[in-house]
Structure formats: C-alpha cells, structure tokens
From TrEMBL:
GO CC terms of this entry: cytosol
Family named by the database record: Belongs to the FGGY kinase family.
Residue ranges annotated for the Carbohydrate kinase FGGY C-terminal domain, each copy included: 256-444
Keyword Repressor part of the UniProt annotation: no
PANTHER family attached to this UniProt entry: GLYCEROL KINASE, SUGAR KINASE
The name this protein goes by in its record: glycerol kinase
Stored Gene3D superfamilies: 3.30.420.40
Natural source organism: Brevibacterium mcbrellneri ATCC 49030
Domain annotation Carbohydrate kinase FGGY N-terminal: ranges: 3-245
Top EC class, one word: transferase
An annotated GO BP: glycerol metabolic process
UniProt keyword annotations, A-Z: ATP-binding, Glycerol metabolism, Kinase, Nucleotide-binding, Transferase
Pfam families in the record: FGGY_C, FGGY_N
NCBIfam families cross-referenced by the UniProt entry: glycerol_kin, PRK00047.1
Length: 491
C-alpha cells in the first residue's frame, strides 16, 4: 500500500499527517511555532522556524508510523494563505520576517489603491485590504533597506507559505492557483499574474513564482530531504484544501472551517460569482490542465485564536482544551457579547477601524461567561457570513459541513446550528485541511480519480437547530448592537 503525506502549515502550528490511500489517518505530528507581535496590528512569523518545524514533523510522523520516505507515494501541501515571505534567490535566506495574513500594516497602500478598487475587484475578485499579499509585499519592498533595488535586479523571490515550503522542499519557485488568487496580483479569469495589477502596485514580475494547477506535479523533493525523490502532487491554500477534504465539488456545496480564523467557502463551479454583500470571489481548485473551479468565500480573522488569547493574554484558562469545560459550566453568556475585532472585522463588514470589545458585563459576570461569549462570537460571525452568502446566491443552504479545531466541541456546533437555523454536519476527520491536501495529492499522483474522492468522505454527526425563532432573533440583534460598539476605534 502506498501512503500519502500531508504537510499542513497553519497560522500557529505545523502538522504532518500520513494517510492510507483511502483517506484513513496512520500517524501525525504537530508543533507550534512562535507568534511575533512587534507592535499593535503587526503579526510576524520566522520563515526559518516554519521550515524547521516542517522538517521535524515530517520526521516525527514517519517515525510514529514506522515508515521511511520510500513508503510515501506522494506529498500534499496546504498552508496559511496571504502570509508573505521574501527571500534571497541565491542563498534562500529570508530578508525579513514573514508578514502574516492577520497583519494590518500597509494602510497607506490601501488608500493609494482604493481609487482603483472596482478594477481590482473585477480582476482579482478581492477588495483592497491589508489582508492580501500584495499590500504586504509593497510594504517590504519600500521598508526593508535595498529590497526594491534588489528585487528589480532579480535577486529576490516572493512567495506565500506554500511557495516558501516548495522552494525548500524541491528547489522550485512555484505556487498553486488557489494561493496565487489570494495575493491580489492574479487575474482570476485567466489564472495568470495580471500585468495591470503589477503596474498598479509597482511589483516586479520576476519576483513572483510560476503559477501551477492545484492538482498535478509541482516538483520532486530534493535529495537531501527525508522524502527524497517523492513528488509533490497537490497544493492548496488551507481553506480551499478544507473544501476539497469536505468534497465540496458541486455548486452550492459549502463548508465552514473553525481554525485560527473562521472561513466559509461555497463552490460556484466554473462561474465567477461576484458578491454584493462583502464576500470575495476566489479560485476553489484546478486539476491538471482542467478548467478553473471557483468559490465565494467569507473570512473571519479571529475564531480559535481567541481561545489562545484567553489562555496566553488573560490567563483565564491554562490550556485551550479547558475552554469547552469552562464555557459549558454556565447556561449561556449571561448577556455578555465579545466582538474579537483585534485586527478589524473582515467579511462581510470589512471594517479595519473596529477593535475588540466585550459588552454586557455586570457584577454577576464570571470567567465562564466570558469564555462562553468568546465561543459564541465565532457562531455569530459565521452566521453573518452565511447571511451574506444566501443573499448573493439567492437560495438557502441545505446544510453546512464544518471542520477545524473548534468543530470537536458539540455544544458550540449545536449553538452554531441554532443561530444559523441550518443543519451542521461534522465529518469523522475534523482536520479537513490535511485531508484535502492528501486527496489532492492522491488525485495528482493517479492513486484515484477526482470522482473517487467523494466516496472517501465519512460523516460523524449532524446537528439540527432547536432554538425558537424569537430567541434567535433577539440574540442576533444584541450581537449586532455589540458590533456597532466596536466600530470607529482606529482612525
């Protein structure tokens, strides 16, 4: 039997998971890496630490499975998107820390590009926002000494995290179409870099990696690596990978991932659907030389990372796992609402001026109520994104598939179903991001066909709504009032 290894590089940790050909987990290993916050609104990672943890978890997973690199048929890669790395083309050394997708620097470039916002949305499917890689890359070129001159001479390379990992694994400077679609530099209609966007941003084209399909061979692991000679045959940005793992292959198929952030993605087939309600048009995947498949996406900056914040910044819990027990010790949030707008609000509001807010506290409020409000905040934000999606596509969703770390929490998923008034379905394997990369790699390596993948998905449990409509409407109205109080804090 051949095995597939997924390298899943998230925002807070790196994971390697080894799967059998039929999608069952054999072994996994994960390791957190350091989050750097050099000033308010700035979030950075060390690219070398990311690469080091990647090598370590690959070795650890192989050891746990008692396998060698020769047992691995193919490799899939999935990654935090938009995070931006620039490195020296000859030495492979980064010239600056990775600027993370959550980072909000670069507002001057947003202002500069905003007069072209309609053109940019038509070309890239994206709003002009510090979230996307082009803004981060513009900042590096202008603020790191000598970077722009070196870039224009062809001495530097840019990549999102997939490209950084692939460069180190294979020596190739490539990216896949889903990651490229999040840079604000790619024309989503053609799947190629947009010359107009390069002209608007002043970014030299030879900085950029070659864009490849998500499914198909993107390179072969170099001889000095544990997986030497193994082909990398699937690469997807993390949210597209989760959708692939949840087999969202038909128009209308929808998943929500509760990870560091919360991300809804619904398949729109070969049609680019333009949103009028704050969602973005993006690429879902591309198989070999087949047509581009598209999606509508809603992104929420803070979900699972709020639990880490309760642990690391407030000390309310000593481990992330404790939040479920603490939150479950009270019947509800006691009238407390937590708007975690630490980096502004993303979809559907797109309000960079918002900041984190806790409202409704009284002398009765305990840490348990705050923990419950923190979990509830993700459900409320997800419901706003679903509302936007329904408005855009014109039909209600039959059900939503969910995954990610928070999806193991039954009480949270029940509350999510109640607030949505929609069934919520959890798969057997909740780490759908890693599953999706393995499915993509398996298809790319010819282990099975795209059509075979749907039969590999397995349901664990379905949560159906029980909350009465009056209670639901009251809670959502109070949430909206709390959000209004979070606005206009950052000018």
């Amino acid at each position: 039997m051949g095995y597939v290894l997924s390298l899943d590089e998230g925002t807070t940790s790196t994971r390697a998971v080894i799967f059998t050909e039929d999608g069952r987990t054999v072994a996994q290993s994960s390791q957190e890496f350091t989050q750097h916050f050099p000033r308010g609104g700035w979030v950075e990672h060390d690219p070398l630490e990311i690469w080091r943890t990647s090598r370590q978890v690959i070795g650890s997973a192989l050891g746990k499975a008692q396998l060698t690199g020769a047992d691995i048929a193919c490799v899939g890669v999935t990654n935090q998107r938009e995070t931006t790395v620039v490195w020296d083309a000859s030495t492979g050394r980064p010239i600056y820390p990775a600027i993370v997708w959550q980072d909000t620097r670069g507002s001057e470039y947003v202002e500069q590009l905003s007069e072209n916002a309609d053109d940019i949305a038509a070309i890239t499917g994206l709003p002009v926002n510090t979230y996307f890689s082009a803004i981060k890359l513009m900042w590096i070129l202008d603020h790191v000494e000598g970077a722009r001159a070196r870039a224009e001479k062809g001495e530097l390379r840019f990549g999102t995290i997939d490209a950084w990992l692939l460069f180190n694994l294979t020596g190739e400077h490539v990216t896949d179409v889903t990651n490229a679609s999040r840079t604000m530099l790619m024309d989503i209609r053609t799947g190629q870099w947009s010359q107009h966007m390069l002209d608007l941003t002043g970014i030299p084209e030879h900085l950029l990696p070659r864009i490849c399909p998500s499914v198909g061979e993107l390179g072969t692991v170099r001889s000095n690596q544990l997986l030497s000679g193994t082909a990398v045959t699937g690469v997807l940005g993390d949210q597209q990978s989760a959708a692939f793992g949840q087999v969202c292959f038909s128009p209308g198929d929808t998943k929500v991932t509760f990870g560091t952030g919360c991300f809804l993605l619904t398949n729109t087939g070969t049609e680019i659907v333009r949103s009028n309600h704050g969602l973005v048009s993006t690429v879902a995947y591309q198989i070999a030389d087949g047509p581009l498949q598209y999606a509508l996406e809603g992104s929420i900056a803070v979900a699972g990372s709020l639990v880490q914040w309760l642990r690391d910044n407030l000390g309310v819990i000593s481990s992330s796992e404790q939040v479920e027990t603490l939150a479950a010790s009270v019947e509800d949030s006691g009238g407390v609402f937590f708007v975690p707008a630490f980096a502004g609000l993303f979809a559907p509001r797109w309000r960079p001026d918002a900041r984190g807010t806790i409202v409704g506290m009284t002398g009765f409020t305990t840490a348990a109520h705050i923990a419950r409000a923190a979990l509830d905040s993700t459900a409320f934000q997800a419901a706003e994104v679903v509302d936007a999606l329904v408005s855009d596509v014109g039909t209600d969703l039959r059900a939503i598939r969910v995954d990610g770390g928070m999806s193991v929490n039954d009480a949270f998923l029940q509350f999510q179903s109640d607030i949505l008034s929609t069934p919520v379905v959890r798969p057997k394997e909740t780490e759908s991001t890693a599953v999706g990369a393995s499915f993509a790699a398996g298809v790319g390596a010819g282990l099975y066909s795209h059509g075979d993948v749907a039969s590999l998905w397995r349901k664990d449990r379905e949560f159906v709504p029980h909350m009465d409509s009056r209670t639901r409407e009251h809670l959502r109205a109070r949430w909206n009032e709390a959000v209004e109080r979070s606005l206009n804090w950052e000018h």
